[in-house]
Design brief:
heterodimer; A: alpha+beta; OB fold (Dihydrolipoamide Acetyltransferase, E2P); 2 domains; four-stranded antiparallel sheet; about 20% helix; about 30% strand; B: alpha+beta; eight-stranded antiparallel sheet; five-stranded parallel sheet; 15 helices
Chain lengths: ~160, ~450
């Protein structure tokens, strides 16, 4: 598993190098990466001009319940053989529920059909509901809630019925 | 008592606009930015930039406590909220007041009162401002059907806490009212956490007109004429002009007086806009709402009045009187503004973040651009898609339209799609040139050829 992660990391670095992006922040399970083409970038620790500690509650919430965080993230790494991948329609923020605090659209193991709404992807205030586009069981959720996803990035693996 | 250092609690073109207005008044500007905006023009031109938090607005621009904390930590004595984000949250105005920071806008209680549409209607009624025939809160679908008989069809069901077209349903008969009531109420509950509805007469071919106001907080209110913002898509304005050329002079005078009376009745402080529906056929106008902030389209009023509204805002927030009296506000010529968004209008106005690789704005007599974009600028995916506002001024509407046509044609942008090609279509359309438009014209005419 560790080996797979490093392969992914190499690929991510290569894609970031080649892209127009200047900064990339990825959090996946316990792994957090901050890439920047700007030498003065604040990085994960926050820059010298940072006057805020507002990021804390989000992380604290996760840390306070580590088992839940790993439980939802752990199966995400494996994509089962034969699964159909549901992808992001465009670059944007991935949301698992219709609004903060609401139940998720889908959970692992849930049956879905063509029209089932799986998540929201938001770019610049435009929210798009992503539908399964196939029938089957949700086998894996590949992205954490609130993460930035790129166009065509795999979001879910669905095992066809 | 003039402000010494103002905190700019916004981004994009308006963030930059406020920084420059502050400097023109010899006021220092500190801008709060997210990680995504650290390299922007606003941060570069400000005397200081502080990072509020990560890109997502909820963790940076929308966190009122954080914003006020940052203003205090940097020794600011004023705070300008711009438009959008926290600009009409009474909470921000209240926090500023608690910490001795002059909020560049109305008092918190006034924002609260005007933010609730039913209370705002009540204020308007008391001030003698015409309202569209309508109702107060409606309790049930059955009551809605009864009320519609008095209001007159077609009717519009609207969310009390609403905005942006959500929780809004048009009904042409009792059956549609009954079905629409459930739908609008559910939508309003989902969007605003409050399902309360009221009803208004629906004017099928209306113009959206609004009056630019500036109050001194003691009952004195100046107006800078009206704007016509009838080119809209899904209740979002795309093109705004000043004055409203379709309005007869006698009605214009009444409109300005109504708007000033309303603002004076609440001792309105700083910049605001009273919005009205203009029923061209009946020659009547009805109050819609007051926006308690500087608006996106304020430049068209500046172009016809010669005033700098953002500088006036800073002056008033510092305790001074406006620099002008009503007699000195001389409205001349005609101005038009296009909102340029980084959107692919032919793909259902899909917003497209990315890097602007070419940015060659037009110039020339009567041409103005308000924008934070430059070649190599990145448009982050977290915020709205507006990349700038192109504004022209001419001696009359005909000359303004001509100048706008040329300016749009000269504008070169590459790297991201923009709405400029749509604007080119709009300003070349015979209806637009002849000023035969209304609020649903764009959707029914220009956008109805299968691209929507």
């Amino acid at each position: 598993m560790a080996k797979d992660n490093f392969t992914d990391l190499e690929q991510l670095l290569a894609e970031f190098e080649a892209s127009d992006l200047t900064e990339l922040h990825v959090r996946h399970g316990d792994l957090e990466i901050f890439l920047s083409k700007d030498a003065d970038a604040a990085g994960l620790g926050g820059g010298p001009v940072q006057v805020s500690t507002a990021k804390a509650p989000v992380k604290a919430g996760k840390a306070a319940n580590p088992s839940a965080a790993t439980a939802s993230a752990a199966p995400a790494v494996e994509i089962p053989e034969g699964a159909v991948i549901v992808r992001a329609p465009y670059l944007g923020t991935f949301y698992r529920s219709p609004k903060p605090g609401a139940p998720s659209y889908v959970e692992i193991g849930q049956d879905v059909s063509d029209e089932t709404e799986m998540c929201l992807v938001e770019v610049m205030k435009l929210f798009t509901a992503v539908r399964a586009g196939c029938s089957g069981k949700v086998a894996a959720i590949l992205v954490d809630d609130g993460a930035m996803v790129s166009a065509d990035q795999p979001l879910f693996a669905v095992m066809p019925a | 008592m003039a402000l010494k250092r103002v905190f700019v609690a916004n981004r994009g073109e308006i963030g930059l606009r406020i920084v420059r207005a502050a400097h023109a008044q010899n006021i220092e500007a500190v801008i709060g930015v997210s990680d995504a905006d650290k390299a922007g023009l606003g941060a570069r031109e400000a005397d200081r930039a502080v990072v509020l938090g990560p890109g997502p607005a909820a963790k940076s621009y929308l966190d009122a406590k954080l914003v006020v904390q940052a203003a205090l930590a940097t020794g600011c004595d004023g705070l300008h909220p711009g438009y959008g984000f926290l600009s009409e949250r009474a909470k921000l105005a209240r926090l500023c007041a608690q910490h001795g920071i002059a909020f560049v806008g109305p008092e918190a209680d006034v924002i609260d009162g005007l933010g609730d549409k039913l209370r705002a209607r009540e204020m308007a009624r008391k001030a003698g401002v015409p309202l569209v025939p309508g109702t107060d809160e409606i309790a049930s679908a059955a009551d809605a059907v009864k009320a519609a008989e008095h209001v007159g069809y077609p009717v519009l069901l609207k969310a009390s806490a609403g905005g942006g077209g959500r929780g809004m349903v048009i009904a042409r008969n009792p059956a549609e009212v009954e079905a629409g009531f459930a739908k609008a109420s559910a939508e309003a509950l989902a969007a605003f956490g409050d399902g309360t509805l009221f009803m208004e007469r629906f004017v099928p071919e209306a113009r959206h007109v609004e009056v630019q106001l500036m109050g001194d907080g003691q009952g004195g209110v100046l107006h800078f004429g009206e704007r016509d913002c009838s080119v809209q898509r899904r209740y979002q304005k795309l093109v705004e002009e000043a004055p409203c050329a379709a309005m007869p002079d006698h009605l214009r005078k009444q409109l300005h007086k109504a708007a000033c009376d309303l603002a004076a009745s609440v001792k309105y402080r700083n910049a605001g806009t009273a919005e009205f529906l203009f029923d061209v056929a009946r020659e009547e106008f009805y109050f819609i709402e007051v926006n308690a902030r500087i608006q996106v389209e304020h430049p068209v009023s500046e172009m016809i009045s010669g005033a700098d509204l953002v500088q006036e805002q800073l002056r008033i927030a510092g305790g001074a009187a406006p620099s002008l009296t009503q007699d000195q506000i001389d409205l001349t010529g005609h101005a038009i503004e296009c909102r340029i968004n980084a959107e692919d209008w032919q793909r259902d106005f899909m917003p497209v973040p990315g890097t602007v690789t070419r940015w060659r704005p037009p110039s020339g007599e009567g041409v103005r651009l308000d924008s934070h974009i430059y070649e190599g600028a990145t448009i982050p995916p977290y915020y709205d898609s507006m990349v700038g506002k192109l504004i022209v001024h001419g001696k009359d509407r005909t000359q303004a339209v001509e100048r706008l046509q040329n300016a749009i044609a000269d504008f070169e942008v590459e790297g991201v799609p923009t709405t400029l090609p749509l604007h080119a279509k709009i300003v070349a359309h015979p209806d637009f040139i002849a000023n035969r438009i209304h609020t649903r014209w764009l959707e029914q005419t220009v956008l109805s050829d299968g691209t929507e």
